[in-house]
Amino acid sequence: MFCLAVKNKKSVYYVDMEQGNDLMEKIVSLCKRRGFIYQGSEIYGGLAGTWDYGPLGVALKNNIKNTWWRLFVEGRDDMYGIDAAILMSPKVWEASGHVSGFSDPLVECEKCKRRFRADQIEVGENGIQSCPDCGAKLGASRQFNMMFKTHIGATEDESSVSYLRPETAGGIFVNFKNVMDSFHPKLPFGIGQVGKAFRNEIAPRDFIFRVREFEQMEIEYFIRPSEWEAKFEEWRAAVHEFNAAIGIPKAQVHELEVLQEDRAFYSKRTIDFEFDFPFGRKELYGLAYRTDYDLSAHEKGSGQHLRYSDEGEESFVPHVIEPSFGVDRAVLAVLASAYTEDELGGEKRVYLKLKPSVAPVKAAVFPLLKNKPELVAKAREIYIALKKEIPQIMWDDNGNIGKRYRRQDEIGTPWCVTVDFDTLENGTVTVRDRDTGQQERVSAAELAKLFSEKIKV
Ligand code: ATP
């Protein structure tokens, strides 16, 4: 492993990554320079495993989360959305098995004292694992629980211990009964949630791929045991549908059938959806058939009935299919898929070929010349009218037109609207397409309709 130094004008980022990863270096640098993603607590030297989303990053991330929510929650009548608390009773994590078993094998180098996840270190020809940094001997492996511990209230003793949730799924299972009592849904139905999760990863690395604070979009889809295979296939297809909606190409996604010996004992089938990240093929999302393990465990832990029955039927604990999506990994896969270098008009350029529906800025509006008040006034008028219809519109009058195009290309803005002297005469503007660089004249009054059509998912 190697510390990649990504230099920007004002600072240097150190990101744990494999050596020589040019593409990652370019992506991390663009993200910093253009306001997508910054190192967490940067002015204090950074905090390992944390990243802050800047103005464009949060817009991109929200667009991805909103696409998911529309597709899987609001767009369906068998789904219910919730937003549960991050802090939960410690009994939740005792019942689910996280307190006793949510751990990774930790090894420490006897010489340089760096710590690693034992299952991520290659075994050498001699059958021994040695330190990837200094090559010295590694100590014995021990289990390290990844949950962040905290204390609730003013007393700091064992009775006040709580945990930051390591996954959002826990909040769904404990609300199964509430949703059933409020809405009386018929099986099959699901509950979805988007929110933060925390894991004290031994070795956070690869930019936002493996971090200690991240976001998940999870679904628990409750079913009858007899229908698990059909429902599993439906969710398998739905994962690809979501990727298509946010612009992750299918050719870069690979399904890994997790073997029985690698699955949790209660899971009858698990597929890892892997993506060709610049640093290798790694897990993007997971899909698992978890039988009735979770609800049964919480039934036992809470003493409450977490059951279902139709009229005249004996009650039973529903089984569950769990599609689990990582928001940050989706953001990284979208960025890596979109990053493009080409030549336009004889000049090299970098642009993000983002789908218009996820692009943080849909269109930038500018006056041809900054020092012509009548052009600026007209451009402001068009900008304000457009922003009322489509909020993700940016005003840009910095530098010359060429510089503005390059800047907008780099942040993935699909269209640039220029207000010129013809606009004052006949109300038309030029719309320049990011991917082709082609311009066409359209009526300013038509812009909102034109863009709205194209940004629909
Ligand atoms: P890995 O094997 O990469 O540690 P996992 O199998 O433990 O991942 P799950 O527990 O299945 O991951 O979590 C569901 C999803 O949450 C993952 O597919 C991933 O998208 C995301 N995720 C998990 N851990 C992290 C992390 N440390 N940083 C960013 N995203 C994560």
Structural overview:
The protein is α+β, with helices and mostly antiparallel strands. It folds into two domains: 3-86 and 167-335, BirA Bifunctional Protein, domain 2, CATH 3.30.930; 361-456, Anticodon-binding domain (Rossmann fold), CATH 3.40.50. It has helices at residues 22-33, 55-74, 90-96, 98-101, 169-173, 176-183, 228-246, 293-302, 327-338, 373-389, 401-410, 421-426, 447-455; strands at 2-7, 12-17, 37-39, 51-53, 79-82, 87-88, 103-108, 115-117, 142-145, 149-151, 161-164, 189-198, 213-223, 253-257, 269-277, 280-289, 319-326, 339-344, 347-352, 363-367, 393-395, 415-419, 428-433, 439-443. Strands 5-12-13-17-16-15-14 form a seven-stranded mixed sheet, sandwiched between helices. Strands 21-20-22-23-24 form a five-stranded mixed sheet. It has a three-stranded antiparallel sheet with strand order 6-11-10. Strand 15 (269-277) and strand 16 (280-289) form a beta hairpin. It binds adenosine-5'-triphosphate.
Bound molecules: adenosine-5'-triphosphate
**Mean pLDDT rating:** 93
Portion in beta strands: 25-35%
| Amino-to-carboxy terminus distance | 39 Å
User: Structurally, how many domains make up the residues?
Assistant: 2
Radius of gyration: 25 Å
Largest sheet: 7 strands, mixed
Which CATH architecture of the largest domain would you pick?
Answer: 2-Layer Sandwich
How large is the count of helical segments?
13
Strand arrangement within the widest β-sheet reads 5-12-13-17-16-15-14
Structural class: alpha+beta
Text of the CATH class of the largest domain: Alpha Beta
The beta-strand count equals 24
Unreliable runs = none
